[in-house]
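We read letters as residues; the fold follows as tokens. A sample entry reads:
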Amino acid sequence: MRRNILISILLIITFAVCSVFAQRGYAPRGENIVNPPIPKTAEEKQILNVINELEKTKGEMQNVPTEDGRLLRLLTEASNAKHVVEIGTSNGYSGLWFCLALKTTGGKLTTFEIDHERVLLAQANFKKAGVDNIVTIIEGDAHKEVAKLKEPIDIVFIDADKSGYLDYLNKLLPLVKSGGLIIAHNMRSPAPDPAYIKAITTNPDLETIFLNMQSAGVGVTLKKRG
């Protein structure tokens, strides 16, 4: 467990350093190196094929940038997460990045979506990727539906109504394991809720770092142990 936590911390530091360099207008050597994910198994290849298909429409679906998706996968696998909860399924794009890791960790994804058409899209994409057996889509208002969750959570990913981030945090934090993560998208654009930022940066039980702030921005919050 300590080894997994150390790996997670090293990954976060690496992304943070890259973000700082990018924001200052320069980058380490190798900035322009293109290194797409290399599938290790046939299962990974199947998932990545669907991700690549969705790349073509991710703008209109307001999906996370590719580098943010890869960050989700790295953090999930490095922390050996068994249960990920996602607020805002959309068409399943970010969920597929989680599934790349969860197939390795033996975990599962519980994801919430209020829009019926998007639920149908996500179901089709998860099935095409061969991960529908580890994904549970809950249709409805997540502000109400998350209250029904009882199982411990390793990672929470919030990418939904920006004014609702604090409510999601307050309702889900008690279920997040010590050493677990709360990952929030759009920490730069669109502008995040100041109340949420205050909650994750002033609570002594939490430690937060902001990554990829040259883009939409990702907040990674650790629920401290002890």
Summary: The chain has one domain: 2-223. Residues 2-223 form a domain with the Rossmann fold fold (CATH 3.40.50.150). The chain has a mean pLDDT of 90.
